[in-house]
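We give its fold:
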Amino acid sequence: MSRLTKQAEEYLKALIGELEIPKTRYEQAERSYKALGEWFHRPESSISDYDPEVFVQGSFRLGTVIKPNSSNEQYDIDCTCVLSGLSKSDLSQAQLKALLGTEIKAYRIAKNMTKEVQSKQRCWRLEYSDEAQFHMDIVPSLPNGQDQRVLLEARSLDASFADTAIAITDDQTRNFGDITDDWPRSNPKGYAEWFKARMGQAFTRRREQVLAEMRAKNAAASIEDVPTYRVRTPLQSAIMILKRHRDMMFSENSTDAPISIIISTLAAHAYNDEETNGSALIAILDRMESAIKYDGEKIIIPNPTDATENFADKWERHPERAEAFQFWLKQARSDFSSTMILTEKRRIARVLSDRMGNELTSKAFEKSDAERPALLRSATTASSTGAPSVAFGEGPRNPKKPDGFA
């Protein structure tokens, strides 16, 4: 196991603190999707008889949301609405999307929201005020657990997450307007459970720590009262850092940037219950290619809840995106291996400035330096000579093909 300096670990902790969104943002997201769910269940609702369930998915559910690069950017709250009282034999994707859209548009009017509801490829976008700085994407969906289990078991694939699978709408599919069993599939609940399992004992330990803090203020608090967003594990922290590093590297060309689901999936596979943020980050970068497969024709990053889905499916049509991923990973390894051996936090901030953003790295330095005793802050910082090294393994990596992934 590579060793990292204490100063680097302290700086990373401060950096993650600056990347974290305020807990009020999580609370705001929770209030928003719950309010929409209540609207769908009101007596006058055209979908209340279909038992609508609204839940958050994506980075808000995984606890890996990061602050936008600027105040002009919005938080993207991804939600799903499952109508459990309907099935794929009852209506088409187009009809389901229209059904849900009617209620979302009525909600906008009732809540005096000025911006029109937008129809996106897979969802409806509900725009909140500029001051709120977020929008909500709601994906219409139906239960698909039984069909998913049959599909996976017929191919002798893991079906342990099948029960929470859903069928979703996508207006780019050729049968969007037809009543058919062939719908796009997803499983955000299953993915979140897989991700939680990958966090390992770290999640349990951190959750108990948060509970202890809550009980110090409220003796009646129980483990069920601990919101997932209050728990911060090394895996989540590493993903947050890597996402910001990605955002900065591809700020001029976001089209080819590695997508968050690929970063999160590969990081979760690579994480091995490392205890600190720094050790997790370095270990993840070292092993990040371990879950990438090559079948002789294409690169595959399987969805851990549905092995028939390839998160890297667009790489076949756009090989430049595969190259961009390899370029980004190489740069991330270089940037963090060179900084995690340093003993001067100011120097760490300076080295990472271009890769993470000057304002972010400067604030992290100020925060981490302010936590040191005054006597230590005024003392001469120890030299980095002889600092323990961080190096990535030189052994063979998978997949072996194509060139650039060796």
In short: The chain has two domains: 6-20+232-378, 23-187. The chain is about 45% helix and 10% strand. The longest helix spans residues 319-339.
